[in-house]
Fold this sequence. Notes:
This protein has 310 residues and is α/β, with parallel strands linked by helices. The protein contains 14 helices and 15 strands.
Amino acid sequence: MSISEIYDIYLQYPSVVTDTRKLTTNDFFFALKGPNFNANTFAFKALEAGAAYCVVDEPITTIATYYQGNNQAQREAALSKMIVVEDVLTTLQALAGHHRSTFDIPFIAITGSNGKTTTKELVYAVLSSHFKTYTTQGNLNNHIGVPLTILSIKKDAQMAVIEMGANHQKEIEGYCVYTKPTHGIISNCGKAHLEGFGGEEGVKKGKGELYSFLRGNNGTAFVYTGYDYLNEMSAGIQNIVPYINGSIQSSEPFLTVSANINDTATTVNSQLVGSYNLPNILCALTIGKHFGVPENKLVEAIQNYAPSNS
């Protein structure tokens, strides 16, 4: 079955799940497998739980024994809801890419060693105050979470904010293939996952795969110019939007920032702690301003944002 044919089924059943424990009636189940699990073995149970269709990548040899006590019609009905593909994960990602291609809206990708989830939440808070915006839920930012996020985006979307996590090189590059970001942010390049990336320069190279995609596809990068290495990494990108200027007024008990939003200093009282959140706040303000979110909504969105882990 081709991706376009699977996409036609997805349009009828757009709730995609990979965990039978979270499955509800008419969900579209993708039977993923890894080193310690194989959801192919739960495909028939998924149908019994109400799944509309199941995508599997192993031969359906157990149907006769699994439905031994049922009649022929029940067996054939179950079989007709099984979609056998070469690899479930790559099919999920290809389906996400097909869905992405139906949108002509900003897709904003966010990655970095630290602070990317907070940045994503702040950017979402700002954009959703003025636009219909979809974003990554929690930190579902890996090879499964990114396509699931894309497939959760509905046709009424005006903005999409996608968080991308990575612990080795070529990972961000792979996400960009089907996410096709129009805009991107690298929050920073720290010392997280040094072993997987092969050292600090490897981290920069891995995170920089987002910049490489933007550079090659006429994208826009929002860059915190306070980090010299981000200036160097983003060189050659045609469209660079530097973060607006800002400074910390107070950090007790929460961060209060003075930011130059529209050529005047504006005070933003956040519910965030730590000076390390200054670039995250400036990033959200920059993106909101870039896309025309009114200043009062910008400031209010950030002041009302409370991190869930606090």
